[in-house]
Amino acid sequence: MKRRDLLKGISATLLGSVTWRNLPIMAKSSSLVRRRVRPSDPQWPSADSWEKLSQAVEGNLLRPRALLAPCETEPNGDACADVMKNLRNPFYVGDQVAGTQVSGWLDAWTPAPSAYAVAARNSRQVAAAVNFAREHNLRLVVKGAGHSYLGTSNAPDSLLVWTRAMNKVTMHDAFVGKGCEGKVAPVPAVSAESGAVWIDLYNAVTTQGGRYVQGGGCADVGVAGLIQSGGFGSFSKGFGSSAASLLEAEVITADGVVRVVNACRNPDLFWAIKGGGGGSWGVVTRVTVRTHELPEFFGAAWGKIKATSDDAFRRLITRFVGFYAENLFNPHWGEQVALGPDNTLNISMVCQGLTSAQMREVWKPFFDWVNASPQEVTVVDKLGSGTLLARHWWNLGVNISLVRDTRDGAPKHHGWWKGDQGQVGAFLHGYDSLWLPSSLLHENQRASFSDALFAASRHKKLELHFNKGLAGAPTEALAASRDTATNPAVLDSFVLVIMADGERPSYPGLARPAMNVEAAHKNARDIDLAAAELRRIAPNAGSYVSESNYFNRTWQESYWGTNYRRLSAIKRKYDPEGLFFVHHGVGSEEWSADGFTRLTKH
Ligand SMILES: Cc1cc2nc3c(=O)[nH]c(=O)nc-3n(C[C@H](O)[C@H](O)[C@H](O)COP(=O)(O)OP(=O)(O)OC[C@H]3O[C@@H](n4cnc5c(N)ncnc54)[C@H](O)[C@@H]3O)c2cc1C
Question: Which pLDDT value is given to residue 17?
């Protein structure tokens, strides 16, 4: 079973036609009113101050070194050999204080260790770090499992709060949020400390517990980072976004206060955390998410087809769009198809709640047509479908599509999808995503939609992630997802189209052939051109904050749409000094690109 061919070959848009207007606070480039301190500044905390912080966090203060630092000092040493052996293991990278799951982005950002890091064990230690950063005017950065494409968990000259060591998972039969007693009915749920990754929850909730939790498709993504992104997994079309299932979070805000937020306590901050973007609101130390009844089966459909000519590819796209609209546009089907410049259509779809026989029945007309049309298409990879007992989907002993983390002492349930391997440590040349409205599936729009897909696929491979657009989801899932900060456009979008390209890991200090910068820039340009073709038919398309273009100029509108104004107000209430800054995060327009210099008076 092939799940998620996503970015296998690791295969921007500046062209958004909508500009962000009427923001209550706009950057004014000339009036510098505040600068955070760097290690070279006289105001940098003294050794004594750092020692006091170290005591406050019970010795968990670290001086991070770059991921490849052991290879610079001792290229033949054991430590260097260890890094090199594990560099393509996402759990290893996530366990390193300076580890980032992508190794950088052309012209955008480069991994660089923080000056100091607190490897927190509890919320008290997190609060000590937050207070220290605020009192000493430091650049603060927060990291969970390190999957930020935009580099937002990485900042040189900063103090890092790193939550990876806090990863306890607890199941609840009947959970009620604090302060919600008597107001909200108890529901089955799971709590996770924020350093946990989704496979920790899949193991506890599904493999052990026989229930379902809505997390990320990528099994090693951090729980707090994903929920604050909105968060989509393979089966989101059935259950809504991850943020939609959030019941409660514990968060340490800029004032150092440990707050429990839910529908009854600090509901505004609770709403902001549900999709308002990681690293902008505080340090989340614990999340509690609702669990759902587990379908009996999860399944997949796969195969790769190549059209015999450009015209045949146009017809193939039109046929698939019609087939999707009539047979797959419902809560059962998620994940992807990819349309390549080489006239290929690669199917890597997953499904929940259908039997093998039902799945076969669904795909039969399409597969029959492929097999009966050799003048139009040839089969490159065999077509097929199949199911697995849902309870075994994330069970490494059963599902052979998962790669086990074989390091000594690694939890036995830790594994990642084979289809995600190409992304581990990748260096990005460019990336963009667009949410496309479901109106494009109407019969009278399918032809122009198919033409746009064909035109865009001339520039770059398009990955159509049907699970990351919620149109077609059940009413309850839509209602819960509507009550989040994610761009409301997601509710009426049936797909997130992702275009990305890059190359093998390129961490600073890693010995590798010189990068072909010209070819890399061409890749980035081609992504712009592909996105522009799609914008012709969806001029106001939103983009998913955590899988998007670093250079998006209309990011407020693209990521959050009409929710941005409300998010700005909540940001000013809980973090008026802008302690929590990330690139293109809420309120970041008030700061210089590196988050060190405030550009607005306040
Ligand atoms: C290989 C890969 C696969 C991905 N797959 C998916 C997918 O299937 N579905 C999907 O929806 N998204 C996916 N993403 C995007 C991913 O969900 C987001 O980047 C998410 O924010 C990552 O969280 P993290 O903890 O792993 O990363 P980090 O880089 O550690 O954090 C990401 C952001 O969240 C902030 N953050 C992290 N922890 C906390 C915390 N405890 N408190 C406050 N802020 C915090 C960080 O400051 C940073 O801004 C993927 C990304 C990558 C690189």
Answer: 30
Look at residue 13 and tell me whether its pLDDT is greater than 80.
Answer: no
Q: What is the pLDDT of residue 7?
A: 34
Strand ranges for 263-313 from DSSP E: 283-290, 292-293, 297-307
pLDDT band at residue 138 under the 50/70/90 scheme: very high
Of 96, 153, 227, which is best to mutate to test ligand 1, by the most ligand atoms within 8 angstroms of its C-beta? 153
Task: Indicate whether this model's pTM tops 0.90.
Answer: yes
Facing residues of 436 across strands? 495
Residue closest via CA to ligand 1's atom 12 equals 231
More confident call, 330 vs 29: 330
pLDDT over 90 (residue 457): yes
Residue 166 φ/ψ, nearest 5 degrees? -100, 100
Ligand 1 center to residue 482 CA distance, Å? Answer: 21
* Interatomic CA distance for residues 488 and 485, integer angstroms: 8
* 48-107 residue pLDDT tens: 999 999 999 999 999 999 999 999 999 999 999 999 999 999 999 999 999 999 999 999
Report the side by side order of strands in the sheet with 258-262: 169-175, 187-193, 283-290, 246-252, 258-262
Give the binding-site residues of ligand 1, using a 6 Å CB cut-off.
101-102, 142-149, 152-153, 163, 194, 216-218, 221-222, 224-226, 228-229, 231-232, 278-279, 283-284, 423, 546-547, 582
Alpha-carbon distance of 24 to 21, in angstroms, equals 9
CA distance 562 to 484: 12
Of 457, 467, 418, 427, the C-alpha closest to 3 is 418
Q: What percentage of the chain carries pLDDT values higher than 90?
A: 94
487's CB contacts (< 8 A; 6+ apart) are 435, 542, 558, 559, 560, 561, 563
Rounded alpha-carbon distances, angstroms, from residue 305 to 18, 310, 386, 460: 37, 13, 18, 17
For residue 478, give Cα distances in angstroms to 200, 241, 333: 26, 9, 16
Q: Which atom of ligand 1 is nearest to the CA of 242?
A: 11
Under DSSP, is residue 409 helix (H, G, I), strand (E, B) or coil? coil
Q: pLDDT by residue (tens digit) across 258-317?
A: 999 999 999 999 999 999 999 999 999 999 999 999 999 999 999 999 999 999 999 999
Separation of CA 101 and ligand 1 centre (Å): 10
Distance from Cα 396 to the centre of ligand 1, integer Å? 23
Among 100, 194, 221, 227, residue to substitute to test ligand 1 (most atoms within 8 Å of Cβ):
221
What contacts 78, CB < 8 A, 6 or more positions away?
A: none
The pLDDT tens digits of the residues spanning 496-533 come to 999 999 999 999 999 989 999 999 999 999 999 999 99
Q: Which pLDDT does position 16 carry in this prediction?
A: 31
Mutate to test the pocket of ligand 1, among 3, 140, 148 (most ligand atoms within 8 A of CB): 148
What number does the ligand 1 atom closest to the CA of 101 have? 53
Q: From the CA of 16, how far away is ligand 1's center (Å)?
A: 24
User: In the prediction, which pLDDT does 545 show?
Assistant: 98
The mean of the pLDDT values for the chain is 94
